[in-house]
Write a structure and sequence with these properties.
The termini are close together. 50% of the residues are buried. The chain has 2 domains: 228 residues, Rossmann fold, CATH 3.40.50; 193 residues, Four-carbon acid sugar kinase, nucleotide binding domain (Molybdenum Cofactor Biosythetic Enzyme, Chain A, 3-Layer(aba) Sandwich), CATH 3.40.980. The protein is built from 13 helices and 20 strands. A hairpin with a 6-residue loop joins β18 and β19. The chain is globular.
Length: 429
């Protein structure tokens, strides 16, 4: 069984690629950043480590990734740098760190994720058919994406050479693409591959399956997993008998907003955390007490959703208040996420809640820290890129960590139903 170490820059992306391996028949375990030192392959063939490095300084991201990779260099068959599917974050620093730590000088980059609307044509990246620079990520509050050419984005973050391979080469077959790969490897650096659809991913997996290092989004991992001849057995774990779900949503993406709107429309209470209240201890305490009261009023519905305020004026007020306290944009996002996670933990302690849905990468990271999740098994798929997870240490704690931009409008209802199933299968060695 091939041992693969995945280093992911955020927790939802880590879950995403763990799910890809799960779907292809392999056991995957995930360790969030605070517990990275505890990470091990024990009982699993695919180890995913979250470095929580998307929003930190590039040199710090480099060090985190380097240390993780160096630790496992002697027992790992393949390394995978899992990055955001729209290239947000410290892309170059993290790619370089993996190569440096395992003594390599070349890596293919496959960013396309067609099932979630991410495609690359002629080196230009698209989100649901819209150029990246014109997509919803153009105005990302932390990493605004104002460029669609992936070579240009990556070249600005690394000293290694960057080039691309056009989809037209795929028409000549896998052997032709292998020859191109051989030539590019002699030059060193990174080669970015076009991805139009899942057939392209299937072909690229055949070509790249024996590469020491692979970089990009999670989608190709599914096809890499399928190529391994040995699959792993399934083990069933029993979900919590406590039939109640709490959803916390820090993401402000249109996808998460649509999911919350749909949940409210079909009868689930939707509570709103007023983020402007978080920068005064007294006002914050009052706000949390209000939300607790509203939670108790609606908890008999089976699921309560607590979201952050999406009003644009209040978002700007929140940023201004945070700036007055010297907080940067990433620090502000963390402060809001930490408040949501703290509230969820208090409600869990007081009411015995064991099932959670968490929307947004920052919020998911805060959730794992607050709940002391040292490691988690990655379970069945709910929708593309999102799975059910179970804590390794706390057997009754089950949760869903969703990237803000993933999922259909019905996602929250689907996730709730999956959480409340009696038995869920997970692959084990």
């Amino acid at each position: 069984m091939k041992k693969v170490l995945v280093v992911a820059d955020d927790i939802t992306g880590a879950d995403d690629i763990g799910l890809m391996y799960y779907n292809s028949g392999h056991a995957a375990v995930l360790y969030p950043f605070p517990s990275a030192a505890k990470a091990n392959f024990d009982g699993f063939s695919k180890l995913v480590v979250d470095t929580d490095s998307r929003f930190i300084k590039p040199q710090e991201a480099y060090q985190r990734v380097y240390q993780v990779v160096q630790r496992f260099a002697g027992e790992t068959d393949q390394f995978f740098s899992k990055q955001c599917s729209v290239f947000r974050g410290n892309i170059g620093a993290e790619f370089d760190a993996i190569l440096d730590a395992c003594g390599e000088n070349f890596a293919p980059v496959v960013l396309g994720f067609p099932d979630n609307g991410r495609t690359t044509l002629d080196g230009i990246h698209y989100v649901y058919g819209v150029k990246l620079e014109e997509s919803q990520f153009r105005n990302d509050p932390v990493n605004p994406m104002r460029e669609s050419d992936l070579c240009k984005i990556l070249s600005a973050q690394t000293q290694r050479p960057v080039c691309s391979v056009n989809w037209r080469e795929y028409e000549k077959g896998a052997d032709s693409v292998r020859e191109i790969l051989r030539q590019k490897k002699q030059q060193g650096g990174y080669v970015i591959f076009d991805v139009r659809d899942n057939q392209d991913l299937e072909l690229l997996a055949l070509v790249l399956k024996d590469e020491r290092v692979i970089c990009g989004s999670s989608a190709i991992a599914y096809y890499l997993g399928l190529l391994e001849s040995t699959k792993e057995q399934e083990k069933t774990f029993t979900c919590s008998a406590h039939k109640e779900v709490l959803c916390i949503a820090g993401s402000l993406t249109p996808q998460t907003a649509a999911q919350i709107e749909f949940a409210g429309r079909i009868g689930y209470p939707v509570l709103t955390l007023q983020t402007t209240e978080l920068f005064s201890s007294a006002r914050k305490a009052t706000e949390m007490d209000r939300l607790k009261r509203e939670y108790h009023a609606g908890r008999n519905s089976g699921m309560v959703v607590i979201r952050t305020c999406a009003d644009l004026q209040k978002i700007e007020q929140t940023k201004a208040l945070a700036a007055q306290q010297g907080l940067s944009a990433p620090q502000t996002a963390t402060a809001v996420s930490d408040a949501l996670a703290a509230l969820a933990h208090e409600l869990a302690e007081e009411n015995g809640i064991e099932n959670f849905i968490v929307c947004g990468g920052d919020t998911s990271a805060s959730f794992c820290r607050r709940f002391g999740i040292g490691g988690m098994r990655v379970g069945p798929q709910i929708e593309a890129g999102v799975s059910l997870c179970a804590s390794l240490e706390k057997s009754d704690l089950h949760f869903v960590l969703k990237s803000g931009s993933f999922g259909s409008k019905e996602f929250l209802e689907k996730a709730k139903e999956k959480l409340l199933q009696e038995d869920v299968a997970a692959h084990v060695l």
